[in-house]
Specification:
The complex is a heterodimer of chains A (281) and B (279). By secondary structure, chain A is α/β, with parallel strands linked by helices. Chain A is 43% helix and 22% strand. In chain A, a hairpin with a 5-residue loop joins strand 1 and strand 2. In chain B, helix 6 packs across helix 7. The longest helix of chain B is centred in the C-terminal third of the chain and has 37 residues. The model of chain B has no long low-confidence stretch (mean pLDDT 90). Chain B has 279 residues and is mainly α. The chains are: A alpha/beta (281), B mainly alpha (279). At the A-B interface, strand 5 and helix 4 of A face helix 8 and helix 9 of B.
């Protein structure tokens, strides 16, 4: 009997027992720093994320959470270990990212930006029209379909980015601090909109943020990461019912308690990160 | 006309004059500048005409504008002017195509692929400083005295600015857009078409403008040697038969073509780059 035949059934069994959508196993990522020294961005991260979970990773800046997302998005390769998204529909893309900065193409209209993934995959025109039309309506961009990004506000541009990712209909959505550049009011509005759109299909989401409030508002599960090297410190369940109303949720005492608890995990990490930053100066 | 009517007429003329003067002084600066810009060549021409007639300048070298215009009408009527202009325009067009398209493809590819850039960059840097006119004898040797050598000269002139600008344009594209392309699984061709090319287009357009200017210089030079038609030939021929007016007409036509092309390309820019148009 050869090895391949031996391995396959066990893999199959494993996935049957735990239907993890994203499986991150002992993931490590090093970058070559200047003096030939390796900089460890991520170390020993293992986590299973179930299908349909809104999974939030929260951590101090520089903890490698963006690197983790970029590995899943196929933009970086891990140094060791693995990060795998389980494919359930072979004709759909594995993931689509919503980037932190301005990432919609300035040379395309709002419509063409939102249709980008579908156009690349040669989806029939009629289908593109329906899907893009739907998500532009959901993100309140229908009126601006033919505008160019420079004519939009920052919040609207980030909406286009969200519409682009959702319209691509991937197995998993990867979001890298999509609201961090927005002002407080816009942030709250977009969080609510994101929740509403997400609740239509409940796709698996991996959402990265440095804001504890945002994590508790949006997530089903929250993973707190340590600062430098980034390790998983704790995974916390968020018990709040859905659909959620951002403002109402934030007014409940349970919300405050959970935020306080997560801050407890995070506080020492933030302090450590600051101490390290001061030490480097 | 009665005396009263004449007086009224005078008053009206005086009024309109004072109004014009007032308008000229109260006009918006942008409009006024444009007006001055339109008027200054005419004023210069009037001065020139007057100086030529008064015998202040040597009309063997600086014939009066009216004289030049007379020759212009004659050459326009017998068709030689249009035949030569058309010959130059055709060479310019084919040369721009022959040099521009490979320059565009190579330039964008160099921006996208580091190894290619590493290989080609030194070659471009080394050959770019050679005065293009100094290559003419070699080009004549290789391509002969016919059309090909002229077209190739234009192509060489157009090639460099477009290639260099296209590479720079791609390198200027924010990396996040290339990340988006990768995350959405764009193929190489799709990345070229949807990210690299549109992202570099503003740079490519200024390269094209520079290239057409260079092409115009080179076509004039190339046509002076071993050509039987074209504006360069016309200018050179004018020197040989001492037809100074014809020489000026050649120069004016070259200037006009350059000016018109620049205007056309600026228009084209507005159409091709709408995301920059109304910033």
């Amino acid at each position: 009997m050869n090895l391949v035949a031996d391995v396959r059934p066990t893999e199959y069994e494993a996935s049957a027992v735990s239907p993890a959508k994203i499986r991150i196993n002992d993931l490590r990522k090093e970058f070559r720093a200047k003096a030939g020294k390796a900089f460890v961005a991520l170390d020993g991260i293992s986590v299973d994320i179930d299908a349909g979970t809104f999974f939030v990773i929260v951590g101090p800046s520089g903890c490698g959470k963006t690197t983790l997302l970029r590995i899943l998005g196929g933009l970086e390769a891990p140094s060791s270990g693995s990060a795998v998204i389980r494919q359930s529909q072979p004709d759909k893309p594995l993931n689509s990212m919503v980037f932190q900065g301005d990432s919609i193409f300035p040379w395309m209209t709002v419509w063409d930006n939102a249709a980008y993934g579908l156009t690349l995959r040669n989806v029939p025109k009629g289908e593109i029209r329906d899907i893009v039309g739907h998500y532009l309506e959901r993100t309140h961009l229908t009126k601006f379909a033919h505008a160019y990004p420079h004519q939009l506000s920052g919040g609207m541009r980030q909406r286009v980015s969200i519409a682009r990712a959702f319209a691509n209909d991937p197995e998993v959505l990867l979001m890298d601090e999509p609201f961090s550049a927005l002002d407080e009011q816009n942030k709250t509005i977009l969080q609510q909109e994101l929740l509403r759109i997400w609740e239509e299909h409940k796709k698996t989401v991996l959402f990265i943020t440095h804001s504890v409030d945002e994590a508790v508002t949006l997530g089903d599960k929250i993973m707190v990461m340590t600062a430098h090297p980034g390790r998983a410190k704790a995974v916390i369940d968020v018990p709040f019912a859905r659909p959620r109303s951002v403002l109402e949720l934030r007014s409940t005492p349970e919300y405050g308690e959970l935020v306080y608890r997560i801050w407890g995990y995070l506080r020492e990490e933030v302090q450590q990160a600051r101490a390290e930053a001061d030490g480097e100066k | 006309m009665t005396t009263i009517q004449r007086m009224q007429w005078r008053v009206r003329v005086a009024q309109s004059w004072s109004l014009t003067l007032r308008r000229l002084t109260t006009i918006q600066p942008a409009k006024r500048d444009r007006l001055i810009g339109l008027l200054s060549p005419f004023v210069l021409m009037l001065l020139w005409e007057w100086a030529a007639r008064a015998g202040l300048i040597d009309i063997r070298f600086f014939p009066a504008p009216s004289q030049i215009f007379g020759t212009f009408v004659k050459m326009a009527e017998d068709g030689t002017l249009w035949a030569n202009t058309w010959a130059s325009l055709q060479r310019l067009f084919w040369g721009a195509l022959l040099g521009g398209i490979p320059a565009l493809v190579l330039g964008v590819a160099m921006g996208l692929f580091r190894p290619l850039r590493a290989a080609i960059d030194p070659l471009v840097a080394l050959t770019y400083p050679i005065p293009k006119s100094a290559i003419l004898p070699l080009i004549l040797l290789i391509f002969g005295l016919g059309e090909a050598s002229k077209i190739v000269m234009v192509a060489i002139g157009v090639f460099y600015p477009i290639c260099i600008n296209a590479t720079a344009g791609v390198l200027e594209i924010n990396k996040i857009y290339l990340d988006v392309g990768r995350n959405f699984r764009a193929t190489r061709w799709q990345t070229f078409r949807t990210v690299a090319l549109p992202g570099a287009l503003p740079f490519i357009m200024s390269g094209l403008k520079l290239g057409v200017g260079m092409g115009l210089i080179l076509i004039a030079i190339a046509e002076m040697i071993g050509a039987k038609s074209g504006l360069g030939f016309m200018i050179w021929n004018a020197w040989e038969i001492l037809a100074v007016e014809m020489m000026y007409i050649g120069l004016i036509m070259v200037a006009l073509i350059g000016y018109l092309f620049n205007m056309l390309l600026t228009e084209l820019e507005q159409v091709l780059i709408p995301w920059k148009a109304d910033k």
